[in-house]
Inverse folding.
């Protein structure tokens, strides 16, 4: 097992990465559990495989697990489901000093983390991420949120978990499409700041996607280490550094909004498309050699991820996608900064992008091929 620390002044926490962690959850979390009752939020898909080992571990250590099982899918990141989670935590008499366990992928982690952030003005929570996307990205760094009608993650809080247990054994039961979607966030770390890791992904992507044990663990560890470094430098995305983790997300969130946050386009798939668009747009305005944009597209294609927005069959224009982007949380005094590329491994924040030009670029992309 590897342990990676997220180093925050006075509030550091550990991310454990390894196989079999959930079966020993009581040992790993024990120091944080003050009461016999342990509240766990999960979804029906995850519960089918992972509820039992977690409950068994807790019961055999003398705890009494209490489980709330939600509908799987992005639609659960809503006011309605948030209210349900909060009411349930109140009924379970969760106190500020307690820790709620979030057992699942990005939706469960974001939603449960946000519920924990607002319950009695903040209680503790532990991330037990079971998807590749949650292990390499959303469980680390404390961004918690639900979606609003106006867009993705627009209501939320920075609320750090007390511990993250990334059990790579859970990837065995992850559907292939979810595995590919999570892999988009792995490739993202290479594209934004680590050309060597990008080259590693080009060579080893198929091993990760086929769940080769060493390759998958290495991908998770290296991704978590990259994220932990950036979060430690800029916890609340105020210094320009953490925003780089948002590479592909401004385009991606617009596509998610346009497809109604549905299974038509998973978050990781939207990020893959968004990375391709960010790379192509960077090349269009002369920041990035076109060959590098082609490498990003090729890496996305090779993983079986969507790389062409024309193929989505959207009935909209670039202006409509650009309008979605104006809800982005990075908006600053009416200006939307874009994360663009100078090279693979060298992302930067460009505050001088003309949104009309982005809209024209997107209209052309929607009609391409
Ligand atoms: O942790 C971050 O910072 C990120 O931007 C990572 C993203 O991959 C992640 O999807 C995040 O939740 C998106 O954040 P948002 O601020 O664009 O909602």
């Amino acid at each position: 097992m590897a342990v990676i620390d997220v180093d925050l002044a006075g509030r550091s926490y550990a991310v454990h990465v390894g196989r079999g962690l959930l079966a020993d959850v009581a040992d790993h979390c024990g120091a944080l559990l003050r009461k016999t009752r342990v509240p766990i939020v999960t979804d029906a898909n995850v519960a089918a495989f992972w509820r039992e080992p977690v409950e068994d571990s807790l019961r055999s250590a003398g705890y009494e697990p209490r489980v709330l099982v939600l509908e799987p899918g992005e639609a659960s990141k809503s006011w309605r489901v948030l209210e349900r989670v909060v009411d349930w935590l109140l009924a379970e008499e969760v106190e500020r000093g307690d820790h709620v366990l979030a057992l699942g992928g990005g939706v469960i982690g974001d939603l449960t983390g946000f519920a924990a952030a607002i319950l009695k003005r903040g209680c503790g929570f532990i991330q037990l991420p079971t998807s590749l996307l949650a292990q390499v990205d959303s469980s680390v760094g404390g961004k918690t949120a639900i979606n609003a009608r106006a867009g993705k993650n627009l209501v939320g809080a920075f609320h750090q978990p007390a511990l993250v247990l990334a059990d790579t054994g859970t990837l065995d039961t992850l559907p292939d499409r979810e595995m590919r979607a999570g892999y988009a966030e792995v490739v993202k770390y290479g594209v934004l700041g680590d050309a060597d890791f990008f080259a590693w992904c080009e060579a080893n992507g198929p091993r990760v996607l086929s769940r080769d044990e060493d390759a998958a663990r290495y991908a998770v560890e290296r991704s978590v280490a990259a994220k932990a470094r950036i979060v430690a430098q800029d916890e609340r995305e105020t210094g320009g550094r953490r925003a780089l983790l948002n590479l592909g997300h401004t385009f991606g969130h617009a596509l998610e909004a346009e497809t109604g946050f549905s299974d038509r386009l998973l978050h990781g798939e939207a990020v893959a498309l968004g990375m391709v668009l960010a790379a192509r747009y960077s090349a269009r305005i002369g920041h990035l050699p076109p060959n590098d944009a082609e490498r990003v597209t090729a890496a996305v294609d090779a993983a079986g991820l969507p790389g062409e927005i024309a193929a989505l069959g959207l009935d909209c224009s670039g202006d409509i996608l650009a309008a979605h982007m104006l809800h982005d949380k990075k908006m600053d005094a009416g200006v939307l900064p874009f994360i663009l590329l100078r090279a693979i491994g060298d992302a930067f924040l460009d505050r001088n992008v003309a949104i009309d030009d982005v809209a024209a670029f997107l209209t052309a992309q929607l009609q391409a091929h």
Q: What stands out?
A: The radius of gyration is 20 Å.
